[in-house]
Amino acid sequence: MHLLRTFARAAGTAAVLLSTTALVQAADVSFLTHWGPDTVAKLEAAAAAYTKDHPDTKITVRAVPFGDLLTTLRSSGGGADGATIAGIYDAWLPDLSKDKLVAPVPDAIAADTKANWPAGVIGAASIGGTLYGIPNEIDVYALNYNKKLFAAAGITDAPKTWDEFLADAEKLTDKSKGQQGFGMINSWAAGVLHPFASLLVSNGGELVVDGKPTLDSKQATETFELYEKLIKSGYSDPAMATADANTTGPFLDNFVSGKTGMIIMANWWESALKAGMGDNFADVATAPIPVGPSGDTARSISYSWMTVVNAKASADEQKAAWDFLSWLNGPSSGPNGASAMGDILMSMGILPSRTSDGAAFKDKLEGDAFLKGYTETLANAKGFPVVLGGQEFSEALQKTLEAVQFGQLSAADAQKTAQSDATEILTRAAQ
Amino acid sequence: MQRRQTQSAVAMLAPATGLITVFVFVPMLLTLWLAFQSWSTQTGFETARFIGVQNFIDIFSNSSVGRDFKAALLNTLIYTVLSVVLILPLSVAFGLLVHQKLAPGGIVLRTVLFSTYMVPMIAVALVFSKLYSPTEGPLNQVLGWIGVPPQTWLSSPQTALTSIVILNVWQQVGYFTVLAVAGLTQIPDSLYEAAKIDGANPLQRFWSITLPLLGNTLLFSAVIAIINSVQVFEPVALITQGGPVNATNVLTYFIRRVGIERAQGGLGSAMAVTLMLSLVVAIAALFALARSREAKSA
User: Fold this and answer.
1) pLDDT by residue (tens digit) across A298-314?
2) In this complex, is the C-beta atom of A312 within 8 Å of any C-beta atom belonging to chain B?
3) Cβ of B134 and A240 within 8 Å?
4) With an 8 Å Cβ cutoff, are B155 and A242 in contact?
5) Do B135 and A405 lie within an 8 Å CB cutoff?
6) Which of B47, B155, B234, B252 to mutate to test the interface with A (most CBs of A within 10 A)?
7) Do B261 and A402 touch (CB under 8 A)?
8) Considering the entire predicted model, what is its pTM?
9) Closest residue of chain A to B132, computed from CA coordinates
10) Residue whose C-alpha is closest to residue A64's, from A56, A55, A54, A74
11) What interface predicted TM-score (ipTM) does this complex get?
């Protein structure tokens, strides 16, 4: 009898201890990102600040190179043991939501998000009207140029039209110095595609309209021909254009070391330029994408990133993840009414997409000549198509554009191939 | 009595064969089955839909995925042939250098050669991506000192795959040199002495004694080199991502891209089955060649 009572007491104590432990450590939340070590440290600091007031949540951050992010999400994110939170590129959302890897945003947080972000950004984070992520960064493209090389070539202003762009590229090209007028990118899908797409929209064209590719348009013909002209004239050297898995490499080295006059890139590479150029970063200026013969105004494509929650994580983990994300992206987590996420993004030169972050960082955005060139183009930017099969479509177009870069395809053949590949891929993905 | 012996044999073999069945044959059969299905890797097997040989038609079609697969197949073939053709003669040459007793330093040389095999691929990839940089890279600077114009290395579709092969040869040759040395030690000195007495010069001794008696070692080396080459993945994933223009897109990398990144499990499985069959055919052809040579010399 005594033994039985001892067992009962021990079992009762164990049950109380276990339930207390469960209460104290309600949820383990892991955050998967592609950010570099400095930015990860900032995210960890924000997570530490959050867990001080929420000891029931434990947050860990895991970083992988950009090139491995989607694969990591696909291979480990699909299970309950995968990352609870992941930062994703909006073009991946349709496929991830189709495979039920991402959870819809809870109603209360969705309502708050819809009220505090621009409608276009909310649209890119939604499928069929359901919001799947809290948007954080928005990226647009602009022409970056080296003022020193411009001055040496006798160019006073940034090119506004494609004719001026070609003329400047010619003046900036000096093969004896190993210098190219305009730097293209290869071996990295977005790096190849986004500058091309920005020139296309600045020429009045689009990649996809209503889910159908429109690479057979007159505007697309002119954009393919522009690429062919840049290559054939030697104003752009594809051998100087390689990117590596970390989205750096020779294309960046050549711009940083003053061997490339102009390049079309997104705002987020400000931190890479600063790190590579040091004081010489002052030589870099930003201008809107030159307008093509069929375009009416300078445009760029835009894309956004968002944080999503693993649909296969436990209910407790999902709740803890959304609560943390709501705080991280909310106006009380950062300095001066900004969100902690906005603060982290601004440290990399990335534009935060939350409306109140734009106001909180107004002075910084207006005082930063590099970023100003991007914020000015934001109003006229066209969103990169968010469609099923988007990644495969991007990779197919990447290869076609690289074939133009290396003279394997003429502009006409490339256009034909691009349209036919895109039609086949998007039709198949939509089935 | 015999029944008890059979039972005992089955009991002893069961653990090993069971593990092999679970971890080797089941995944192989599953891959083979999936090659005939339309299936997303993000969903359960119950969602797989039988589509016959459509996946195989797609990967050999002229669609975007078909062109990429055929390019990856060709690249893998070129990579494998170049790697084997370079590694085997170099391993024999280095093996002879290490094995000779005329000059000191053989063991040091063997250690230096083998050390490249022990360097992790991530470190090799990082160093080689910088060495190969067309404008800033030390390789082009060194070539410039001797009047050779800068090479494009990884930055051109014409040279990118060869550059990855050079990296592979650099890393693997030490391992194959050790195999060659092991083969050389098995050749009796008396054969060389007899050949010397018969007046054979070093070249004749190499062609008539060393090379024929290294046959089995070279066959083993060739099989391992082929398997290693067909499975190349890390340098492509770490440095080139299959570019530029598909020039370094190899099968393992492309299967990962299709099967995991795009979640097209059926297509990825069809590619994996094709790769497996190609490997089986290549290895079988190699053994058939070796057997026919043996028969001729016998």
Assistant:
1) 999 999 999 999 998 99
2) no
3) yes
4) yes
5) no
6) B155
7) no
8) 0.85
9) A250
10) A74
11) 0.82
Say yes or no: domain A2-138+303-367 is CATH 3.20.20.150.
no
Residues A104 and A132: beta-carbon distance below 8 Å: yes
Per CB-CB distance under 8 Å, the chain A contacts of B266 are: none
Task: Name B262's Cβ contacts closer than 8 Å, sequence gap at least 6.
Answer: A95, A391, A392
Which CATH class name applies to B71-297? Answer: mainly alpha
Q: Options 2.40.37.10, 2.40.440.10, 1.10.10.410, 3.40.190.10; which CATH number does A140-302+386-430 get?
A: 3.40.190.10
Cβ-defined contact of A399 to B134 (cutoff 8 Å): no
Q: In Å, how far is B154's CA from the nearest CA of chain A?
A: 8
The pLDDT tens digits for B127-164 are 998 899 877 789 999 998 998 888 999 989 999 999 99
Domain boundary assignment for chain A: 2-138+303-367, 140-302+386-430
pLDDT in tens, B272-287: 999 999 999 999 998 9
| Averaged pLDDT, groups of 10, chain B, 298 residues long | 82 89 90 94 88 96 95 96 96 90 76 86 89 84 90 92 95 93 93 93 93 93 94 91 92 93 93 94 90 79
Q: Which chain A residues are within 8 Å of B51, Cβ to Cβ?
A: none
With a cut of 60, say whether residue A7 has pLDDT above it: no
Q: Do residue B237 and residue A249 have CB atoms under 8 angstroms apart?
A: no
A207: left (phi over 0), alpha (psi -120 to 50) or beta: alpha
Task: Could you list the beta-strand ranges (E) of A230-356.
Answer: 260-266, 284-287, 301-309, 351-352
Nearest CA in chain B to A94: B262
Chain B nearest CA to A49, separation (Å): 34
Give pLDDT tens digits for A96-143: 998 888 999 999 999 999 999 988 889 889 998 999 999 999 999 999
For residue B230, the Cα-to-chain-centroid distance in whole angstroms is 5
Give the CA angle between residues A122, A125, A128 to the nearest 5°: 95
Is A239 near chain B, with CB under 8 Å?
A: yes
A2-138+303-367 matches A140-302+386-430 in fold: yes
The two tokens of residue A268 are: 């987020």
Structure tokens at A11: 């079992």
The domain spans of chain B are 71-297
The CA distance from A227 to A222, in Å, is 9
Is A237 near chain B, with CB under 8 Å? no
